[in-house]
Design brief:
The chain is an alpha+beta fold and 245 residues long. It has helices spanning 7-14, 18-39, 47-58, 63-74, 106-119, 149-159, 180-189, 212-227, and strands at residues 83-90, 96-103, 123-124, 134-143, 163-166, 170-175, 194-203, 231-236. The strands form two sheets. It has a four-stranded antiparallel β-sheet with strand order 3-1-2-8. A hairpin with a 5-residue loop joins strand 1 (83-90) and strand 2.
């Protein structure tokens, strides 16, 4: 995941090899387990769980896998205690990076994250060092199937969205985080095909990288972070060149 909700980055994950898909399943499964332990296994009474189920289905996690995870967490079958931690730092050329983790071993995760930053030309910072440059937004991606733009604009704002943009293949709708579920459910009820609906950290400004070595290091930093099982989300403000996306 990138700084802004660029669909090609989401699509890159969807088209990844089976091993990478298994990692996506693992990460979502970890989120569901924590959510059920905190708020119960009934999505009708646990709105966060309802959002995670929608996220899992959007990432092609089979229904039986989702049901099994929820039952295991409800029944106490998963004894692992995961702790949420957020790391902030800078990549090459001062690119701001936020890393959200869920881990059963904080020391291991912190060591891994620090190692990645050090190895690829960045440095891990203190809490708050870059998060002030980001704001939390709900981002919904729709498939653009020749949609009537005027009709869509009327409908998304009626549902409570704050902004939207359209390109050839997709439509990106922005909401306040607490409106994400209602807007997503409303759009689904109207028949729109939803490709993704998640809360993301959106940067207020972007940073460019000019030299090839720093571009390579920034890509490697993101790859290593996203490949780590303890890392749930990575956000940054790199204005990525097309060939890097």
């Amino acid at each position: 995941m990138s700084g802004h909700s660029k669909w090609n980055n989401i699509k890159r994950k969807k088209e990844a090899a089976d091993g990478a898909k298994a990692k996506v399943f693992t990460k979502i499964g970890r989120e569901i387990t924590v959510c059920v332990k905190e708020g119960g296994g009934d999505p009708n009474n646990n709105s966060k769980l309802r959002d995670l189920i929608a996220k899992a289905k959007a990432n092609n996690v089979p229904n039986e896998n989702i049901d099994r995870l929820i039952k295991k967490a409800v029944g106490g079958g998963d004894k692992t205690n995961y702790e949420a931690n957020i790391y902030e730092g800078y990549g090459p050329n001062g690119v701001a990076v936020i890393v959200e983790t869920l881990t059963d071993n904080k020391n291991r995760t912190a060591g891994d994250i620090r190692h990645y930053f050090d190895k690829f030309g960045g440095n891990l910072g203190t809490t708050g060092c870059v998060s002030f440059m980001f704001s939390s937004k709900g981002i919904i991606i729709l498939e653009n199937t020749g949609i009537d733009e005027d009709k869509l604009m009327e409908e998304v704002f009626e549902l409570g969205a704050s902004d939207f943009s359209i390109d050839d293949d997709t439509i990106e709708i922005e909401t306040e985080p607490n409106n994400l579920s209602a807007v997503r459910d409303g759009l689904a009820a109207k028949g729109y095909k939803i490709l993704s609906a998640e809360t993301e950290m959106i940067p207020s400004t972007y940073t460019t990288i000019e030299d090839e070595d720093s571009i390579k290091k920034m890509n490697l930093l993101l790859e290593h972070l996203e490949d780590n099982d303890d890392v749930q989300n990575v956000y940054h403000n790199w204005d990525m060149p097309e060939e890097s996306e």
